[in-house]
Amino acid sequence: MDFFYRNYKRRIILAVMILLTMILIITNVVIYSILKHVMENQFQSAGQSVAVSVSLIISEDLDGYRNFMKTRDTTSEYYLRMQGCFNKIKTASNIRFIYTLNKLDDTHIEVILDSEPIGSQYYSAPGSIERMNEFTRHVLQTRRPTALKPVHSSYGYLLGGYAPILDEHSELLGMVGIDIDYGEVLSIVQQLLIALTTIFILLLLFIYLLLSRVSHFILDPVLKDKLTGAYNKRFFESTLQKSIGISLKTNQDISILMLDLDYFKNINDTYGHIFGDVVLAKVATYIRECLRKDDFFVRYGGEEFAILIFDLKPTIAMSLAERIRKSVESHNIYNAEENLSIKMTISIGIANLQQRELSALELVNEADKALYKAKETRNTVVNF
To answer: Does the chain have fewer CB atoms within 10 Å around its N or its C terminus?
Structure first.
């Protein structure tokens, strides 16, 4: 039945769409992870580089920095000059905080310079104490710049870098900290992800529409006989077992018609296989014209066909078979090469399920037996 073809088509399209969706989701996750990792590395490197630059700026006036460490005078010319320098750097970049730190003990550090204006909710007055983290501890121990990996803090989700402040004798005076708002980084990545997801969704929609339109070009060569356009035996066998299950659940009868062209071997022997194919294609057309839309027409093998019909009483199935027999008998098939017309007849055997719990093979065997009986007289219909 076309119902099973449509269902098979839907399942194939669904399977393809699920596979493509999984591939696109994995691709999306991989791209997101790569973008996130790349941008993190870039911002960490940038933060570390700026920290080194600020450290060099401070090193140009070490006396001023030492004096400010003693006085903590936020009205001094040095403090105002450094705040102005820090703010210029911030204005030209995406840096959120610039500050310097001094070690108090093994677990605490204090803020010396802060780029935030006095009165800001994020301003840390000179001498504000904070706990040391693994990154500041690394700088203090190695006296080398380091990147600040993304961390949650009271100031937000931050990344950046640290650099040591060294005096003339390479002694450690403190360190510079650069913080970049990681939320902005994630926002950039998420915007790219949204754009990418939108593209993927549109791509999936396009593929779905394309498959809905052209899937029959893919499925027909797999499921149908090229010569007659009937479904092939393999698809029929898988469909029949499902049909029996549906019939038993819904209390709807199904019938199988097995059809065989009479004396077809003589056609091939007399007129050749090319004309034999013409005969098969023509007879298939005559048969199909007698069927309903959802009747399942099959080329079972050679000159033998099968029809699976749903929800017809045995007497109506018998009438349908008789109509097919008469249709084939009434048509002339023209042989252009021999310039003559020939007539074909067909023998048909019928088996009805009638709510019996039979296997597909058992039901086909019954139809085969009825066909064998019909072949004894030919051009006739026999019900099992």
So the answer is: C
Rounded to whole angstroms, how far apart are CA atoms 237 and 235?
A: 6
With tokens 């902005």, the residue in question is 184
Structure tokens at 142: 């190695």
Encoded amino acid at 81, one letter? R
Residue 75 to residue 90: CA distance in whole angstroms = 21
Q: How far apart are CA 285 and CA 324, in angstroms?
A: 11
DSSP letter string over 163-232?
Answer: EEEE-TTS-EEEEEEEEEEHHHHHHHHHHHHHHHHHHHHHHHHHHHHHHHHHHHHHHHHHHB-TTT-PEE
Strand pairing report for 146-153 and 304-310: unpaired
End-to-end CA distance of the chain: give it in Å, rounded: 22
Q: What's the CA gap between 364 and 240, in Å, rounded? A: 9
Burial (CB count <10 Å: 0-12, 13-18, 19+), residue 15: exposed
Question: CB count, 10 Å around CB of 67?
Answer: 13
- Where the chain has pLDDT below 70, the residues are 1-5, 215-222
Predicted TM-score of the model (pTM) = 0.60
Whole-number pLDDT of residue 349: 92
Q: Which residues of 283-322 are buried (b: 16+ CB within 10 A; e: fewer)?
A: bbebbbebbeeebbbbbbeebbbbbbbbebebeebbebbe
Q: How many residues does the chain have?
A: 384
Helix (H) or strand (E) holding 55: helix 2-59
Provide φ and ψ at 72, rounded to 5°.
Answer: 55, 35
H or E stretch at 343: strand 340-343
Kindly provide the b/e burial profile for residues 126-136, where b requires at least 16 CB atoms within 10 angstroms of the residue's own CB: beeebebeebb
Q: Which two structure tokens, joined as six digits, stand for 151?
A: 């961390």
Q: For 267-309, what is the HEC assignment? A: HHHHHCHHHHHHHHHHHHHHHHHCCCCCCEEEEEECCEEEEEE
Instruction: Give the per-residue pLDDT at 296.
Output: 84
